[in-house]
Amino acid sequence: MEGSDSFSDDDDFVTTQKRTRRRATPEVVEKKAKLVKAGPSTSAAKSKPSTTKTATALPDPSKHLAVETTRAANCAEGELNPRGTKDKEKRKSETATSLVREDQNFLPVPWSYILDEEEMEVEEEEMRLRDGRGIIHRAVELAEEFHIKYVGSSDVRLGTTVKGEGVDQIRKTILRLVGVAQNETTSSDLDVFEASPELVSTQEEQGLTAGQREVLFQEIFGRGGRVDVEDKPGWFLIIHKAPTTGLIHLCLEVPQTNRGVLGYIAIRLCTKPKCYQYSQTLSSDVLPKCAQHQPNPIFSVVEMTDYNRRDVLVLLHMKLAFSVVSNASKQMKDEKAELMIHHLCTGYTQWANYCTTSGLQTRPIPKSISRHHFNNEGEALRMLSFESTIGMFIKLASGSQPIINLDDLIPLCYGMEGEIDARLKELGIELKVRRHLTKDEKAGVKYPFPGEYLLGTAAAAQQQPAKGNTFLYTIMSRNMWYFGWSNTPDFKHRFQLRAGTDGAREYKRITEKRQKDRELEIEGLRQRDRELGRAEDLCIYPPPLKAPTMTPYLVANCEDDDKKNINTKTIEAKMIIAGYVAYLLGLRNPIRPNSDVGYSTNKCSLVDSNSWGEICEFVKLFWGFEPMLGKLNERN
Ligand SMILES: [Zn+2]
Ligand SMILES: [Zn+2]
């Protein structure tokens, strides 16, 4: 049991890295594991100002921002800034953070993979065919059911706009101030046969006119420059002059904690007619636009670190959306992204938590390590998935430096096996099969997690739900596995589609729809042939596409009295990562050996950096293959 007393619960913060040995005995496993995950974490949440943590305490009224109570001189009707005001350049003043931004010579804390000495241990065993095999590059297009599962829910899917929190209430407040009835109430009173289209037209078709905007501003000025947002306690609409640019805007004022102090921030409302969004509007624009209405949208994936931290490699991956002038150079995009991460970080839970780490020598300042820019959000999401999956392996591998990985949920990357293989190799890591276990070898593998392994045992049928009992399960088909946990060993309701959108349900929905669509297609062709009077046995139809059978299996139980089921979720996360490793290595459903190479369909939480040993043990137990992270280019 070497090393078992030198583990830290928070391995990230120790400078001498010790990890679970690959051949860890089960005792090692029983140390407390900590699941590194907190707070909401949709990609959308990462790329919009965090205005959501406002529920409980409100800032002291003295913290309200300065507001304007009269209109600036020489404004046109419905405008807040004098005629001819131009957009401002971004602030050029020299601050600690601007110096960090402009530091072109910055290099992150170097990290390189070091092989655990244990790994070198050579055993006398006969080589088997698949020993040493690496990541399998699949030369097929990734089927829809295996598309990357992005964090959050379906609204983060491509192309859909996420409506910001409170946008409906902002709209309602503004329309009431202007005295315009909302669309719903107006149209329901109308007799559609008598009303001409012009009469139906409320501001919702047109957007506010200059006159209506003028009314809005005068109403707010008349109330002292600040009005409550309806049904959003603690939220206000204010007319506010940006201290840095002097530009005046209609803003949302919401509570925000900055460096531990609860205060308010102003966020510009989009000035596109009919839009009440506020995400990513700029104080330097005379007429700010939200992310959706900015011209030339750019979606960037940034890997960033803490500029001031030199003892540990801090990593965080973020997706940004912003707009640039047309034909902007890579350097311009880089600069803009650099400017944005500073603002976005403060609203990002994981970074904010990191900033409160006790004993930090210097205040953390975010600095990008790499930047990738796209015109298309889908490509950016794929890159985010790729980069954070690589970050997960860096966290799991034993490195020359301890790392703090601030990514919370990893949208595991599918369909890019070649790229993952290549990047890991660049880092000196080679993921491969160390050993295809023989039957005897497999029989000797112990379940690495707390609780009882039930797969294929008689005990599986005897499990009962009880307080403090949790269950780990898998759902498998001929080409898919999914891991989850439950309070009950009974899966009767597991497949009901209305209950959620996890990977298993999505797989079921998509494959069943494909089967149904094919049935309809064939039926349509049959119908046509009958109408044409063709002889049935001469007609050729496309083959049916039968949705694969999905079977749930109880994998293990666990005693977990914790309200949040942290232990169970930690085991689940490790099983999910094991399932992902099995996918990369091209393994198959172990219960149906003649099945195809499988895909996992989970996204996952990050686990402790000392989890790799347990993950490997589980792959051995479940699939009968031992994975390893080999070291490439070892020189001595
Ligand atoms: Zn907008
Ligand atoms: Zn990365």
Automatic annotation (TrEMBL):
Residues 36-57 have a biased composition (Low complexity). It comes from the Eukaryota. Residues 24-33, 84-98 have a biased composition (Basic and acidic residues). Residues 1-98 are annotated as: Disordered. This is Uncharacterized protein. It comes from Folsomia candida.
